[in-house]
Write a structure and sequence with these properties.
There is one protein chain. By secondary structure, the protein is α+β, with helices and mostly antiparallel strands. It is built from 11 helices and 9 strands. It has a 4-stranded antiparallel sheet, with helices on one face. A hairpin with a 2-residue loop joins β8 (about 275) and β9. The protein starts with 11 loop residues before the first helix and ends in a 5-residue tail after the last helix.
Length: about 400
């Protein structure tokens, strides 16, 4: 690699792992990413490489066969994956997020059933929250789960489910008490196995970017799920469980923003040093120097914010504020850097022969995924509003 992207990671083992992933990204991902992107093809060979490095078990406890590495390490890995192709960091996101929810909140029987299978992975995971009429307001979901003896009957529809056709287990947010006040006390999370009667992955949704990863609808139609599949074993705690897991998701998306911004910068600095205009490389023109300097400052700040949020999560403390800050800033600057890269490259940037079009179409997803930028601002404001006045 041209520079050491892991230099800000404190743990030497994590730094080594992130470096190794970076070498793999440069060697195996960057040469083929555009091919998979343009074909909108699931990158099975690249997933094999990720599996061989143990990345799917990165946050699974050692007792269940995983690596149990830090969130700091995970954030660095996701930055490197996204630097090669953002979709790879998306594929691993819901897998790690759901695995974390199971390891943190699941019953011992649920841990034994699922966690060893997530390491290789024998099965992959999907998260189902969003519905046609419930996006940022997750408490407004209408999918219901009604107790029926030793089972629950689930009915409803979910949208924008990553890994929707390929997952083996789905973490589904439902309402078990539609009259609960506050609303979150009526929300329960279920672990739903693929192939459960009444549970159907629906059509694949076409997207502006984020190619190679299927995003689907899901339908629950009198889907009968054993009560043993309630995450943690009890009703009414699903909202807290999933919101905690989303802190992991927001660290992932923040890291993706850093990776895409870094890729845009790397391409831009290389191009600026070889492309000549008015008799000299465009890097020697002050306008481009200022633009590249601003990109680098933004990326550096985003990297540090993301690693800081990851370390906060590692400490065991609540990290919604830190993850919200990192996610907000990193994803916004990814959009800015992707556009700046187009400006630096000029007319050639509009060609699909260069990866710039991928950065530009991928970047908007990240200001929406795992809570929009406006939602992050709300999370941040609520968190600081609870602090004691100075």
């Amino acid at each position: 690699m041209a520079r050491d992207y892991s230099a800000d990671i404190a743990d030497p083992l994590a730094q080594e792992i992130v470096n190794n992933v970076g070498v793999w990204v440069d060697r195996e991902v960057k040469p083929v990413a555009s091919e998979f992107e343009h074909a909108d093809e699931f990158p099975e060979p690249l997933l094999k490489g990720m599996s061989n490095m143990g990345l799917f078990g990165i946050k699974i406890p050692e007792a269940y066969g995983g690596l149990d590495l830090s969130f700091e390490c995970y954030a660095g890995v996701c930055m490197e994956l996204a630097r090669g192709w953002m979709s790879l960091a998306g594929i691993i996101n819901t897998h790690v997020l759901v695995g974390y929810a199971i390891s943190e909140y699941g019953t011992e029987a649920q841990k034994q059933k699922y966690l060893p299978k997530l390491v290789e992975p024998e099965i992959r995971c999907a998260l189902t929250i969003t519905e046609p009429d419930a996006g940022s307001d997750a408490q407004a979901i209408k999918t219901t789960a009604k107790r029926d003896g030793d089972d629950y009957i689930i009915n409803g529809q979910k949208m924008w489910v990553t890994n929707g056709h390929r997952a083996g287990v789905y973490l589904a947010m439902t309402k078990t008490d539609v009259t609960a006040n506050p609303r979150h006390k009526g929300i329960t999370a279920f672990l739903v196995d693929a192939g459960t009667p009444g549970f159907t992955p629906g059509r694949r949704l076409e997207k502006l970017g984020y190619k190679g990863v299927e995003t689907t609808e899901l339908t629950f139609d009198d889907c009968r799920v054993p009560a043993t599949q309630v995450l943690g074993g009890g009703e009414g705690r699903g909202f807290q469980h999933i919101m905690s897991a989303l802190e992991v998701g927001r660290i992932n998306v923040a890291a993706r923003g850093v990776g895409v911004a870094q890729a845009a910068f790397d391409d831009s600095i290389r191009y600026a040093q070889i492309r000549e205009a008015f008799g000299k490389p465009i890097f020697e023109h002050q306008a481009q120097q200022l633009r590249l300097a601003e990109m680098l400052v933004k990326i550096r700040a985003a990297r540090l914010l993301t690693l800081d949020a990851a370390r906060k999560k590692d400490s065991g403390a609540r990290s919604d504020l830190d993850a919200g800050i990192a996610k907000l800033y990193s994803t916004e600057i990814a959009n800015e850097c992707a556009l700046d890269a187009l400006r630096i490259h000029g007319g050639v940037s509009y060609s699909k022969e260069l990866p710039l079009e991928r950065y530009y179409s991928d970047a908007p997803l990240m200001i929406i995924a795992e809570g929009t930028s406006d939602i992050q601002k709300t999370v941040i404001a609520r968190a600081i509003g609870k602090e004691e006045p100075v």
